[in-house]
Amino acid sequence: MAALPTMKVSPDAVDFIDDAFLSSLLTGPPPDGIRVRDTIARSLAKKPLSVEETALLLRVRDPELVEQIFQAARTLKETVYGNRIVLFAPLYIGNFCVNECSYCGFQMGNKLSVRRTLTPAEIREQVLALEAHGQKRLILVFGEHPKYDAPFIADQVRTVYSIRDGHGEIRRVNINAAPMDIEGYRIIKSAGIGTYQIFQETYHHETYSRVHPPHTRKGNYLWRLDGLSRALEAGCDDVGIGVLFGLHDWRFEVLGLVAHATHLRSRYGVGPHTISFPRLRPACGAEFTGAVSVSDDDFKRVIAILRLAVPYTGLILTAREDAKLRRDLMGFGVSQIDAGSRIEIGGYTEAGDAQVMEREQFELGDIRPLDTVVRELVQDGYLPSFCTACYRLGRTGEHFMEFAIPGFIKRFCTPNALTTLMEYLVDYASPETRRSGQELIEKELAALEEGPLKAELIERLGQIKESERRDLYF
């Protein structure tokens, strides 16, 4: 097995984060209402915001203007994504790591951590357990270690795709792993991955160096910052960015995310497919003492302002947050959540293991079963979606933007969400969830415009409900 790639940063790699400039945008008096409303109007016209425009929203203090930001985020989410919420689950493959991130349970010096890498047989057990609950989309998570090189990751992706239970299979595998060189990304891409996700953790240079010791692999700020640029150059269609809120000023991190999205969009013609914004959580064996408070109210603003700044980027609200807060935040721009999640190695079949905490990267806040989450979404008027059609029909990267920007994507998204929800209801749902889901499907169908598309959708829903036909998408 080869070592991880040598960290030779490309000569044209750009450190596009200027700490002093971004910090300066957050100083000064609160903006007046006219400027705020003009910025909101630009966002509602589905125009990405600049870092300067985003900073203006971050400086708002007037409660009435803050509420206008929240309402605009709700409106924009409904306009671009409708009431759909895409569901997925993480699958941790291995927690060996060469880094010493001070906030992470996987850090190399953590003597309490139980190190483990799933074997192919154990991966099969985990995937079958996930499929038995109705999961269709996974993100595979790896520590940063020579064990987890590009060929290894590609092999695990192929293993996951090869496993199916009596009703279904995993249809899309995304990746959260270390930055690779271009050839490494090409190897992993050849396995058929969806999104390659790398969190910068914090965009603030001094904070980054403090929590990621410079002598470690992750201590190389520019190698990590340039990681997704290399992925796009290698042909990966979709990339995901994110930070860990609680390491530095949350407002600065929002500007860092927008600056990163702007850089990718200007250089490669397509921004990030997703943005994640997890908050710092306790981790077994990680004695992190430098946390910066991000209140629930602040977190609500993070989501709303990101939605306005990047209208066509998926926003992922993770199960780090508790169930009540996730429910409260859902309407402010969230488009994806994980559900039924276990983040300890082997956790989907070994949840009662006494050493379960020692195999977690951090503590979760929402460990409810998938069925419970689906039922709550349905009863709150959201449309749970397990759709993977865009990936499989080539509507990714620049092609996704071609469909999404004019709004054409809604022609596909609602029908595909409905067919995947019907699959879930027929094959996996509890009776109560099935009843609520069927009612929602009828309501959604009644709202669709009459025509050939609706007629074809009704036909496909009937086939799923009355036969063994599955995976019918537009």
User: Any idea of the CATH class of the largest domain?
Assistant: Alpha Beta
Structural class: alpha/beta
Point out poorly predicted stretches: none
Mind telling me the CATH superfamily name of the largest domain?
A: Aldolase class I
CATH architecture of the largest domain: Alpha-Beta Barrel
Q: What is the residue-mean pLDDT, rounded to a whole number?
A: 93
For the terminal residues, how far apart are their CA atoms?
41 Å
Strand order of the largest sheet: 1-2-3-4-5-6-7-8
Q: The CATH topology of the largest domain, please?
A: TIM Barrel
Counting DSSP E segments of at least 2 residues, the number of strands comes to: 9
Shape, please?
A: globular
Order of helices and strands: HHHHEHEHEHEHHHEHEHEHEHEHHHHH
Report on this structure:
The structure is a single chain. The chain is of the alpha/beta class and 474 residues long. It folds into 2 domains: 77-368, Alpha-Beta Barrel (TIM Barrel), CATH 3.20.20.70; 402-466. 44% of the residues lie in helices and 9% in strands. The protein has 19 helices and 9 strands. It has helices at residues 19-25, 33-44, 51-58, 63-81, 120-132, 150-161, 182-189, 205-211, 221-225, 227-233, 250-268, 296-309, 323-329, 370-379, 389-392, 397-404, 410-427, 431-447, 452-466, and strands at 84-94, 137-142, 172-176, 195-197, 238-242, 274-276, 314-317, 336-338, 383-385. It has an 8-stranded parallel beta barrel with strand order 1-2-3-4-5-6-7-8, surrounded by 6 helices. The radius of gyration is 21 Å and the shape is globular.
